[in-house]
Each structure stands twice: as C-alpha cells, then as structure tokens.
Amino acid sequence: MADRSLASAVRRATTAVLAPERWWVAVIAIFAASRVVTTSILLAYASIQPANSWTGPRPDYFSFAKIWDGHWYYIIALTGYPTELPRDDAGYVAENAWAFMPVYPAIVRFFMTVTTLDFAVVAVIVSLGFALAAALVFYRMMNHVLPARTALFSVVIFCFAPLSAILQVAYAESMSLFLLMLALYWLMKRHYWMLFPVIAVMSLTRPSGLAFALALGLHVVYRWWVRGRDGFPRREAVAAVSATVFSVVMGFAWLLIAAAVTGSLSAYTDTELAWRAPYIGHVELVPFAAWFQAAGFWAAWWNVPQWLLSVLIVAGVLGFFGFLLTRPARRLGVDLRLWLVSYALYILAVFFPQSSTFRLLMPMFPLAGILAQPKSPRYRILLVLACIAGQWGWIHIGWWVDNYDWSPP
After folding, report:
1. What is the rounded distance in angstroms from the CA atom of residue 107 to the CA atom of residue 21?
2. Cα–Cα distance between 42 and 163 in angstroms, integer?
3. Which tens digits make up the pLDDT trace of 204-220?
C-alpha cells in the first residue's frame, strides 16, 4: 500500500511539473539535474588534475573552470586588448587576445567590480546564468515546431550533451548560445526588428554575424519565393532585409575594431591563423580550404591517404545536407534548417578542424530536436546515458590537462 501511495505521489508530482503552463519549472529541474551530473564529473577530474600551465595540482572547481581559453578571458577582463600585435621570432603574428570577443569578459569584469569577487567565480556564475536562460529559450524555440513533451526532451539532450560542461566554465559559449537561440526565436516569430539588439551583442560575443546574415538572407529568399501562399508584406520585407544587412555589418565589426586599434587590417584574421600554424604552418586564409589543408595534416598523423580524408569530408557534407531533407529534420521547420545550413557553410569556410571543432559545432543545437523525436523510453534513457558518457569522454580528452595536451577544448 505504501509503495502504491508513493508511486501515485511521484506520478502526481511529475504531472504537475510537466504541465504545459509550468514548462519553465520542468526546464529548470532538468537544467539543475544536468549541472549536478556535469559538476560531479568536473570535480572528479579536478581531484586528479596534476600541476599544469594554469593551476597547481588538484585545483578547486573555479580554478579548474578557468583554464584553456578561460585564461584569455581573464587577461581581457583585467587588461583589455593589446594595441600592438605580438609577433614570434619569424615575424608572424602570435596567439593573442584579439581572437576573443569583448562582451563576455566585459560583463564578467562589470560583476567583478560590483561584487569584488574573483574572476573565476564570477565567470562561472555568469556562464551558468546564461546557460539556464539558454535552456529556457531553447524550450520555447522547440515548442514552436514540436510537441511540448518532445520539446522538453530536446532540452534534456541540450543540457546533458557531451560538451555541456562548456556551459559552466569561463567560456563565452553559454552567453553566445543564449543570444543565438533568442535571435532564432525572433526569426521564427518573424519579429525582425527585435533582432537588431540581439545581433549587435551576439556578433561581439562569438563569431556568428556572417553565419546569421546568411541564414537571414536565405530566409528572405524563401519568404519571397513562397509569398504567393504565405505572404511577405512590404513592412516585413524591409525589416528582414535591414536585419540581414545589419548582421553582415556586425559580422565584420570585430575585424574592423581590431584593425582600428592595432593599425593592421588583418589583425583579427592573422591572430586566428596563429592558432592553426602549429598544424599546417603559416598560410593565408582561403575560404573552404582549411578542411582540405587539415586533411593533409591528419592523414600524415593517422598514416592514411589524404584523398581518403578528402572524400570523407565531401561525403560527410553531402550526407549532412541530405539529412536536413528527411522527415524528422523537416519537422524543425524552414528557419532552423536554414540556420543549420548557414552555420555548416560558415564552419566549412573559415574554421580549421581540430579538437576545438566539437565545441564550435554547439551552435547546431537544433539537431537536438531531431534526436528528441523518437518516443521510445528505452531509446531516450540510452541516449541520455550516452550523453553522460560523452561528457566523461570529452572532459577527459578535451578539458583535463595530462602533461603535454594536444587536444584543447
């Protein structure tokens, strides 16, 4: 009798939490549970972390959370950006703070001043706040195109995803994802004028302006193409085109700011290229060339033919675009698929594939809405367990520092 009463109470509580009008309660509960899991994994690795370039042995959580690029944000929050580009012995631009955009460290610095707390503590709190906000907006996005329960499981996938540890460390990803989700939500609702402030901040948080401009441009073309059955009033067309142009401008804003401060028009791109120089040497930025340049490096590393990796790249790209035409993908609607296409093209055009690429793929979060569609309880449980296992794997390979580490997150 007691067991039945307990089971009944659990069912009533679950029904109350999952009620559509209290969706935010369910999202917060999912987010909190995911952070318990992820924090436990990070603490486990912190407890065995040897001394490294950023911390001593067995650092506390906050120190462990500000390693890797978190240290660059720490430098920016305290000292800003260099007016003169650092150069190596050969005269090439070296790695420096201009690779990291200013909004996240500026917000962290503001709260450091207000609270007098240490950078690492404030950075983690800011990241967690934006991560929770992202989860809430993500549910609203998914519920716009998917049933409530499916949208909620999309949030589960997002919160427990293999790289979700990045949402609670001193990185700008959680803030960037929140802004991107908000922008996509306004796009789906066709509130074009609401996009302007979001684009302005988003484009100076992580590189995203040009990818979002492409998505907006494709959205305008699509709406014009189907105007006969869906309508495209002039006022909406003006707003959508204006937002597209603004996103293009903001996509180049950081490059122009870096050029104005340092006196070098190529300051930002030279800085970004410095990160790939250890792999392929100093090369020019040629759109869509980096993945095939990387094929040469990784082919030599893995001792496989370069042509094989090049074929796999082409097959993977074609397979991905073909996948977006399948029925589960079509349930996401046109706008989210246009974003996935646009961001994939952007990644192919400008990024060099290495261990950080997994983190750079996080803006493709709408794919969680596809993975969430099967309703089998067994499938969903196994998927969540696979995500948690993926967290262990990614933190071990990408975050934890073991002597010389060639796999930065």
Report:
1. 33
2. 12
3. 999 999 999 999 999 99
CA distance 45 to 72: 22
- Please give the structure tokens belonging to residue 185: 């939500």
Contact 78, 112 (CB under 8 A): no
Q: What letter represents residue 284's amino acid?
A: E
- DSSP assignment of 73-109 equals HHHHHHH---SS--B-TTSPBPP-GGGS-SHHHHHHH
pLDDT band with cut points at 50, 70 and 90 for residue 9 = low
Which tokens is 405 given?
A: 């580490």
Token pair recorded at residue 352: 């060099």
d(CA 125, CA 111): 10
Longest CA span, the chain: 79
Give the SS3 label for residue 31: helix
Residue 21 has pLDDT above 90, yes or no: no
144-185 residue pLDDT tens: 999 999 999 999 999 999 999 999 999 999 999 999 999 999
**Cα angle vertex 153, ends 27, 134, to 5°?**
45
Q: Which residues pair with 87 in a beta bridge?
A: 93
Q: Tell whether the torsion through CA atoms of 382, 387, 390 and 391 is positive or negative.
A: negative
How many angstroms separate the CA atoms of 156 and 150, rounded? 10
The predicted structure's pLDDT at residue 10: 47
**Is residue 188 within 8 Å of 62, Cβ to Cβ?**
no
* CA–CA distance, 143 with 149 (Å, rounded to integer): 9
With a cut of 60, say whether residue 132 has pLDDT above it. Answer: yes
- Structure-block tokens of residue 326: 């399948």
pLDDT at 12 (0 to 100): 60
Residues 283 and 273: beta-carbon distance below 8 Å: yes
Question: What would the two tokens of residue 29 be?
Answer: 């509960």
Q: Which residue, among 170, 181, 98, has the nearest Cα to 134 in the 3D structure? A: 181
Residue 64 in this model has a pLDDT that exceeds 90: yes
Q: Is the pLDDT of residue 8 over 90?
A: no
Which residue type does 163 have?
L
Strands of 206-324 (E only): list them: none
What does the radius of gyration of the chain's CA atoms come to, in whole angstroms? 22
Helix (H, G, I), strand (E, B) or coil at 93: strand
Q: Which of 208, 131, 367 is nearest to 195 (CA)?
A: 208
Check residue 213 and give left, alpha or beta (phi > 0: left; psi -120 to 50: alpha).
alpha
